[in-house]
Amino acid sequence: MSNVGRENFYTCDACGAVMVTVDVDEGTTPMLIDCRVGVCKGLAQSGWYAPKPKMAGSATWEWYRPAKKTTRGLSTEDRLHVSLGGLLLRPRSEGGEDVST
Ligand SMILES: [Zn+2]
Structural domain of residue 14, as residue ranges? Predict the structure, then answer.
């Protein structure tokens, strides 16, 4: 089943922040990600595409598949992740579909 267009959310163990994400490409997403809220060094855990918490708001992050030519700039770890079918996370405003609004 495709997850493209589906929302997911990650809850940080340390600060409790909820990051809402959306898949914009086909691929796999990690179970744990670094918390991106402020200077928090916590780990945020996937909600497994369960319905997001009511207070979470709309998706501000998106999972995307980088173009082949852009993977050069990635870390070795990210390149490996992408080569195994993984998606990368970026803020929704960067090249996302909501820019024109
Ligand atoms: Zn956090």
Answer: 7-91
What's the 74 CA to ligand 1 centre distance in angstroms?
Answer: 24
Q: What is the model's pTM?
A: 0.85
pLDDT digits (tens, 9 = 90+) for 44-69: 999 999 999 998 999 999 999 999 88
Residues with CB under 5 A from ligand 1 (ion): 12, 14-15, 17, 35, 37, 40, 42
Per-residue burial over 63-85, b if 16 or more Cβ lie within 10 Å, else e, is: bbbbeeeeeeeeeeeeeebbeee
- Domain assignment of residue 96, yes or no: no
User: Residue 97 has what pLDDT?
Assistant: 52
Q: What are phi and psi of 62, to 5 degrees?
A: -135, 145
When divided into structural domains, the chain yields a total of: 1
